[in-house]
TrEMBL record:
Residues 186-215, 216-244 form the 4Fe-4S ferredoxin-type domain. This is EFR1 family ferrodoxin. The keyword Lipid biosynthesis does not apply. InterPro entries: 4Fe4S_Fe-S-bd, 4Fe4S_Fe_S_CS, EFR1-like, Flavoprotein-like_sf. Signal peptide: none annotated. Keywords: Iron, Iron-sulfur, Metal-binding.
Length: 257
């Protein structure tokens, strides 16, 4: 069984590649939680896989929320894998997802990572990749997925298939801690005059944090997890985060959206 969370399409695309390889249909954890029914039967699956983006060198918060709430029946004794999609490196995301699963009585078998185009744009010096870097990452990703699939099939160690990067302890234990504690909740997202009230941002928000007012314009509540689905997938580029994103790019996986 393959569970995924994706904001810009990277993790969805990766989940689909594994799904095609292993003959499984990926399941959206955001959709499951919107239905408020996290009781899942995994008995027929040979393994369980979680595919999610790395946000500030830690697991995407929506995936952590899902793991906390889920009731996974029939997973006892099955291999459990995590596949992180990251722009550059993952820090110690593997340790955080391992702990989250252990808290639910599940043992992580192996954690892998797939490098995909960058999409975090809410801080100074952070922007999407150049067209050349984006193209190269997308071209290299299928080979990486095949390597991971082969390691799973052969039950081989994940050596070389997970990228922690330099300064991993500081990135995850300090920066990610600050991200989860201080940068979520109330946000500086806003719309520009280009917004036509299509409502896509509210539809794609995994947390139900965006509501449309009587004016059909989006309003953000106070439980944003900064997945950036709204700002990147707006078809009119009508969403900004304060002024810091005004001159920055937008990204959606071209093979998905």
């Amino acid at each position: 069984m393959i569970f995924y969370f994706s904001a810009t399409g990277n993790s969805l695309w990766v989940a689909r590649q594994f799904g095609q390889h292993f003959g499984m249909t990926p399941v959206s954890v955001a959709d499951i939680m919107k239905k408020d029914d996290c009781c899942i039967e995994a008995g027929a699956s040979p393994f369980v896989m979680f595919v999610f983006p790395v946000h500030s060198w830690g697991p995407a918060v929506t995936m952590l929320k899902f793991i906390e709430r889920m009731s996974l029946r029939g997973a006892e004794g099955k291999p459990i894998y995590a596949v992180c999609t990251c722009g550059d490196d993952c820090g110690r995301t593997d340790e955080l997802i391992e702990k989250a699963l252990a808290d639910r009585g599940l043992r992580l078998t192996r954690c892998f990572s797939v490098t995909m185009p960058n999409c975090y744009i809410l801080l100074p010096l952070f922007d999407i990749d150049s067209e050349e870097v984006e193209r190269r990452k997308l071209e290299n990703a299928p080979a990486r997925i095949e390597e991971i699939a082969a390691a799973i099939e052969k039950d081989e160690p994940a050596s070389g298939l997970y990228k922690r990067g330099s300064g991993s302890w500081f990135k995850t234990r300090v920066i990610n801690y600050g991200f989860r504690r201080y940068m979520q909740g109330e946000t500086a997202f806003r719309t520009t005059g280009d917004c036509n009230g299509c409502g896509l941002c509210a539809e794609v928000c995994p947390e139900g944090n965006i509501r449309l007012g009587e004016d059909r314009l989006p309003h953000w509540d106070k439980h944003c997890v900064q997945c950036l689905a709204c700002i990147h997938r707006c078809p009119r580029r009508a969403i900004e985060y304060g002024t810091i994103t005004v001159k920055k790019g937008r990204y959606r996986n071209p093979n998905v959206y």
